Amino acid sequence: MSTELTAITPLASLLAARSVQGQRVTFQVTEDWQQGRTLFGGLLSALSVQAMRDVCGADWPLRALQTNFVGPVSLAPFQVEVSLLRQGKNVRQVKAMVLQADAQGVEQVCGILLGVFGTGRASNLPTRQPAQPPVPVSAEAATSLPYLPGLTPNFTQHLDFRLAEGAFPFTGGGDWLTRYHLRMKDSAGVDNELIAIILTDAGPSPALSQAKAFAPASSVSWALELRPVTEVDPDGLWRLDQDTIAYEEGYANDRAHLWTPDGQLAAFGYQVVAVYA
Questions:
Q1: Arithmetic mean of pLDDT, 153-166
Q2: Does CATH place domain 11-118 in 3.10.129.10?
Q3: What's the rounded Cα separation, in Å, for the pair 135 and 13?
Q4: What values do phi and psi take at 242, rounded to 5?
Q5: Could you tell me the pTM of the whole model?
Q6: Longest Cα pair distance anywhere in the chain, in angstroms?
Q7: For the structural domain made of 143-275, what CATH number should be given?
Q8: What is the location of CATH 3.10.129.10 in the chain?
Q9: Deepest of 78, 88, 122, 133, by most Cβ within 10 A of its Cβ?
Q10: In sequence order, which residues have a C-beta less than 8 Å from that of residue 27 and are 6 or more positions away?
């Protein structure tokens, strides 16, 4: 069980402490970013994207990211090994492997990621921007999710979560959907792209709302697509819309949409989540 944590490390501090040697970028995280016995998956993906930028360039926005969570990442230092798969005129495809030594000193693969970076191009087609659907509860009236040591994941201390629609996890009710107003409590020095990665993975699977008692869950794979956004209020609340579109044999198939505080679609993704209930 987790205990009350006194030290909180902002994401910008984790990024500033990284070291780059050739195609490998080394990170070390703190206990407040854990999710159970491993690192919060959204943070692992965000750090891996930063490693991709460090090795292959940060000049193009991230368009798509696929993450397979292979094994747990402990509090020991870990490395992200980056490989450029292909560089074209408009698209760059990059692979990242998350590596960490086990108790015997043998390097293990903890995650495999594929990132697609693409520069904008002129197009003759009209622009299409989806409209953000309304929710019944405003950010001001929404109920905040508290951090409860031993019950809510450690990383949630970094987030302001407010339920706008659906049910809290482990309440045994509600539909197979959740809508949250949310933001990072300290996002200073972090760009919108990394914030979007963090926030899109931050919400618990809506399937957990169906559980009547605590049940652990773990992401198995995650496909994320991002859209460049502009002029995001650093203090504003984003919105995360999640739906469990199928559930059977302990696996949830979830869909998510992330909207900026002013209603721009920032990201959407799909996850396979193992639910142990």
A1: 95
A2: yes
A3: 34
A4: -130, 140
A5: 0.95
A6: 57
A7: 3.10.129.10
A8: 11-118, 143-275
A9: 78
A10: 14, 17, 18, 47, 51, 77, 78, 79, 80
